[in-house]
Amino acid sequence: MRTTLPVIIAFLSGFAMIFLFFLSPEYSSINGVELEPEILSWVTIVGGFTLLLGVVSIVRVNYTAVKRRKEGWGYKVATLVSIFAMAVPAIIPSSMSSLFGTGPGSIYDWLFNNLDAPMMSTMFAMLAFYIASAAFRAFRARTAEATLLLITAVIVMLWRIPMGEIVLSGIHENIPNLINTYIMNGANMAVQRGIIIGAALGAAAMALRIMLGIERTYMGK
Amino acid sequence: MRLTITAIVTALVILTAVFAFAQDAPAETSDGNIFRVDRINALVFMLIFSIVILTYTRWARQGKELFLRKISGLDQLEEAVGRATEMGRPVLFIPGINEIDEIETLAGLSILGRVARVTARYDTPLLVPVRYPMVLAAGQEVVEQAYIEEGRPDAYNKDIVRYVAGEQFAFTATVNGMMVRQRPATNIYMGAFYAESLLLAETGNAAGSIQIAGTAQPAQLPFFIAACDYTLMGEELYAASAYLSREPLLLGGLKGQDWMKVLIIAAIALGIALSTFNSGEWFLALFRNV
Predict the structure, then answer these.
(1) Are B46 and B119 members of one domain?
(2) Nearest neighbour of A203 by CB, restricted to B177, B216, B223
(3) Less packed terminus of chain B by CB within 10 Å, N or C?
(4) Quick check: is B94 in a domain?
């Protein structure tokens, strides 16, 4: 029963979504309620309930590390303080004070704009340096394939930067167009589409296996 | 049996062609029809796909031998966990950063089950940071089941799978911190990844971990290929659970997929030929809205 019930629910949910995909718009609603977005909103509702699990998990893991003075426990204190500093003022209704809730001028809003957002941007900006180090390793001309990759990458990088485009156009005005046509829209796109078609078929096959209860490994079976 | 399948597939292709020609109604309008006529070709494609997959699944169940090409990344999974065991360091597994309703996350969880079995067998510490509470619940279930099946329920700890952050880059920062402080010997990334793919993989590389990645996001594949030791590309991620378990029922689905690829390649070749001779409009109409 522990496995059968989820399989039945998976089949019915999957079948309902497929059926609604083929149903005409005026037949896919009951009393003005569109069934497809309605079913999808159930996922959000279930997700809302499980949020408590996430909070319990993060607090338990970090609290245990602090209690046992594990390596880096200071970071765990910062995590715990951050969770409550963001969550508590946001949960208190804004009717009590404009500092509470999530509206403009609230504690939550200030923390988000002045701490959360800059930290996220910093992490994202670091990507540039990681790309440089990964590219350095990937482009080392050790084999014929790596050399080909290096030459292609240099040409594409030259084409992508304004100065490079001027230099390439100076050699021949059609070179930037040729790179775009043959490398980016030719070889690159063909390979990407091949991967996408394969992945789409794989995803569809897996969905079918899950719907029919053949694939149960995601439940640990 | 093969003849029957061929007959069914041919009949369905003809049916698609008939519907494609018959359709005059534009998309989003029904003209009084209960079903969307403009999507009938998608229905036929889905039926062909289902029939092929189910037929191969049936053959596999009957004991027919099915050939599977070697996937190095999956063959190395057990060895990578063995390396972590020898070094006395943990294995880090990330089932992507998407919600549970994404098929890539489910594929990642399937592989997590297999990895958890090996870590349970060798008594290797396992770390599974997740970004969504629903993935947390499903991941805990998968790992607990794996430990029970390996006869090691005592070694299971609820905090193996842990929720770390809901924000994409907060999640990345936390996982990078884990890599630097706990220095896992093996990092396994299986699922949907976006801009954080290289941030994770490069940090793992700098920490000296052996890394195996798998994703169906084409834009992230070059990053994983550059920074990881093995990378599963696109469909290989979805094939992993069948490949690792070698269960005939799951293997049948893989062979069915391969045949669908043959059909698609044939359709592309035919489309190119018809377009070259400027007579491919009727053929294009078959695939509109699929």
Answers:
(1) no
(2) B216
(3) N
(4) yes
Sign of CA dihedral A161, A163, A167, A169: positive
Distance, in angstroms, between A124 CA and closest chain B CA?
7
Q: Is the ipTM of this complex over 0.95?
A: no
In a domain, B192, yes or no: yes
CA–CA gap between residue A126 and residue B249 (Å, rounded): 45
Task: Identify which of A1, A122, A4 has the alpha carbon closest to the alpha carbon of residue B172.
Answer: A122
CB contact under 8 A, A130 and B198: yes
Contact call for residues B208 and B183 (beta carbons, < 8 A): yes
Residue labelled with tokens 């430990």: B147
Q: Domain range holding B163?
A: 77-228
One domain for residues B95 and B143: yes
For the stretch B204-243, pLDDT in tens is 999 999 999 999 999 999 999 999 999 999 999 999 988 8
* B181 vs A: CB within 8 A: yes
Contact between residue A61 and residue B128 where contact means Cβ atoms under 8 Å apart: no
CA of A192, closest CA in chain B: separation in Å? 6
How many distinct structural domains can be found in chain B? 2
A221 contacts on B by Cβ (under 8 Å) = 145
CATH number for the domain spanning B190: value is 3.40.50
Burial class (CB in 10 A: 0-12, 13-18, 19+), B12: middle
Which residues of chain B are within 8 Å of residue A206 when distances are taken between CB atoms? 103, 106-107, 238, 253
Contact of B207 with B179, CB cutoff 8 Å: yes
Phi and psi dihedrals of A39, rounded to 5? -65, -40
**Yes or no, beta carbons of A218 and B106 under 8 Å apart:** yes
B-facing residues of A in 147-186 (CB < 8 A) are none
Residue B239 counted as domain residue: no
Q: CA of A138, closest CA in chain B: separation in Å?
A: 5
How far apart, in whole angstroms, are the C-alpha atoms of residue A213 and residue A219? 11
Q: What confidence score (pLDDT) does residue B267 get?
A: 92
Q: Is the pLDDT of residue B139 over 80?
A: yes
